[in-house]
Automatic annotation (TrEMBL):
<dbReference type="InterPro" id="IPR050807">
    <property type="entry name" value="TransReg_Diox_bact_type"/>
</dbReference>
<dbReference type="InterPro" id="IPR018653">
    <property type="entry name" value="ScfR_C"/>
</dbReference>
<dbReference type="InterPro" id="IPR001387">
    <property type="entry name" value="Cro/C1-type_HTH"/>
</dbReference>
<keyword id="KW-0804">Transcription</keyword>
<feature type="domain" description="HTH cro/C1-type">
    <location>
        <begin position="14"/>
        <end position="68"/>
    </location>
</feature>
<keyword id="KW-0805">Transcription regulation</keyword>
<dbReference type="GO" id="GO:0005829">
    <property type="term" value="C:cytosol"/>
</dbReference>
<dbReference type="InterPro" id="IPR010359">
    <property type="entry name" value="IrrE_HExxH"/>
</dbReference>
<comment type="similarity">
    <text>Belongs to the short-chain fatty acyl-CoA assimilation regulator (ScfR) family.</text>
</comment>
<protein>
    <recommendedName>
        <fullName>HTH cro/C1-type domain-containing protein</fullName>
    </recommendedName>
</protein>
<dbReference type="Pfam" id="PF09856">
    <property type="entry name" value="ScfRs"/>
</dbReference>
<keyword id="KW-0238">DNA-binding</keyword>
<dbReference type="GO" id="GO:0003677">
    <property type="term" value="F:DNA binding"/>
</dbReference>
<dbReference type="Pfam" id="PF06114">
    <property type="entry name" value="Peptidase_M78"/>
</dbReference>
<dbReference type="Pfam" id="PF01381">
    <property type="entry name" value="HTH_3"/>
</dbReference>
<dbReference type="GO" id="GO:0003700">
    <property type="term" value="F:DNA-binding transcription factor activity"/>
</dbReference>
<dbReference type="InterPro" id="IPR026281">
    <property type="entry name" value="HTH_RamB"/>
</dbReference>
Length: 472
């Protein structure tokens, strides 16, 4: 395991791990071979987590080192920056260094503060027509997103179960779709039929147990059929494992649990059609070329991109990517990050991001080096995905995805070819959305930064008609 370049203070994560496993400090200290006082000091962030203990914890609890990293702290700081940009806080501004300290020392308090702010904004939008108590402070999809992010979008037990199933199932002379169909027929007595009215009924698959059939749309792409058959196998054979994961560590609210179950089903399907070890080795040998990978495995561009964002198995980590899926209006449909990148929680994403340029060039890959407001530089790969229209009256959703890694990992990918990664002249500065972005000279700004005093200037006019008075 490579040594960390900076001291890793992981007190909150140690405490979360211990509580998740139902351990006392004394039990965990004995488990990893340290004194009780030493563990107590690490949990209070008075001492950093050394490399040998990091490795011991990862091996003992089947975790990735990224689970202990500061990516969650970076995401929390970003959320605090956006929240504190609200004008309601203008009389009590909080410096970035203080936000970082709060995210590190009191993460539970920060989350409680953000939950309270969500409740406040919800009430503002509803004009106080409903009592606060009737509204959950966190929407189910947000709770699931936070839960997935907390696991770095990697679920070890489920991933291993999918990989083991693949290795038992596949043979050299059989394609995966044929093997899945044969397994469903032999083990569950389910044959596959194709119906012409599935789309009209809003269904992508349906199990008819009376007829012993799996019904699929007649015009479905083969990569979608492959994914949905894997979904069905996960539902039929691995529901207990998913239930155990949810019962042990899943969201507590009912709707959030149901959405998390859907997510785990999708995760299993993706891990089955792209088994971890085989996929990682091929990704590394192909330098993470998504088009080459999708052709090799017979899957879609989106399926490969999403799977690349999950490769965080301890001892066999791939590049830590972030993955986002957006529609043409800028609504974020999926968001996962194994690195420090964090998207805006309020307002639309930055228009300088290459994911929006992808809509102007459908099916073509857009590559961009961008720098976020915390000075991190990312290599971003964006492309439109989704199906074409089936008829003149059909209105398929216009969707694009973006896959990104830090510039330190960029050279491992084919997308860095021809780029001078040491020359940052053409790096595009992107922000968390205009509301929270403090960049002063951006001609793409659509509204003033929130929470700052504006100086419109009487003797001069800038690129934008308003500038924020510098913070002291």
């Amino acid at each position: 395991m490579p040594r960390t370049k900076t001291k890793l203070f992981a007190g909150n994560r140690l405490r979360q791990l211990r509580q998740r496993e139902g351990m006392t400090q004394a039990v965990l200290a004995e488990c990893v071979g340290v004194s009780l006082s030493y563990l107590n000091q690490m949990e209070r962030n008075h001492r950093p987590l050394p490399d040998h203990l990091l490795q011991s914890l990862c091996e003992r609890f089947a975790l990735s080192p990224a689970w202990f990293a500061d990516t969650r702290e970076a995401h929390a700081v970003q959320a605090l920056r956006e929240t504190m940009a609200d004008p309601i806080f203008k009389t009590s501004p909080l410096q970035l260094v203080k936000m970082a300290e709060a995210a590190r020392q009191s993460p539970e308090l920060c989350e409680a503060f953000l939950t309270l702010y969500r409740a406040y904004t919800f009430e503002q939008e509803r004009h106080a027509h409903a009592p606060l108590a009737s509204m959950p402070p966190l929407e189910p999809y947000e709770a699931v997103g936070n839960w997935v992010q907390d696991h770095n979008n990697y679920f070890h037990e489920l991933d291993c179960a999918a990989e083991e199933f693949y290795e038992r199932l596949i043979s050299t002379d059989t394609s995966l779709d044929t093997a899945l169909a044969r397994h469903l027929r032999n083990q569950h007595g389910l044959g596959i039929t194709h119906n012409t009215d599935m789309q009209e009924r809003g269904l992508v698959w349906r199990i008819d147990r009376h007829k012993h059939q799996i019904q699929l749309p007649h015009n479905q792409p083969p990569e979608s059929t492959l994914f949905f058959l894997a979904q069905i196998i996960g539902q039929l054979e691995h529901t207990r494992l998913m239930t155990d994961i949810l019962r042990r560590e899943g969201p507590k609210e009912r709707n959030a649990q149901e959405l998390a179950r859907v997510y785990l089903g999708n995760y299993f399907a993706g891990a089955l059609i792209l088994p971890y070890t085989r996929f990682l080795h091929k990704a590394q040998s192909m330098r993470y070329d998504v088009d080459d990978l999708r052709r090799h495995f017979g899957v879609s561009f989106e399926q490969v991109s999403h799977r690349l964002s999950t490769m965080q198995r301890f001892g066999a980590e791939g590049i830590p990517f972030y993955f986002l899926k957006l529609d043409i209006a800028g609504n974020i449909l999926k968001s996962f990050s194994a690195n420090r990148f964090s998207q805006a929680r309020f307002g639309g994403p930055c228009p300088l991001w290459n994911v929006f340029r992808a809509f102007a060039t459908p099916g073509q890959i857009q590559v961009q080096l961008s720098q976020t407001t915390d000075d991190s530089i990312y290599l971003n790969v964006a492309r439109t995905v989704g199906r074409e229209g089936l008829s003149y009256a059909d209105r398929p959703r216009q969707i694009a995805i973006v896959l990104g890694c830090t510039i330190t990992d960029a050279a491992k990918t084919v997308y860095a070819s021809g780029l001078d990664l040491a020359d940052h002249t053409l790096v595009v500065p992107i922000g968390p959305g205009c509301r929270a972005c403090g960049r002063e000279l951006c001609s793409h700004r659509s509204l003033p930064v929130s929470g700052r005093v504006l100086d419109t200037g009487s003797n001069a006019r800038g690129v934008v008609p308003y500038r924020a008075v510098p913070e002291h």
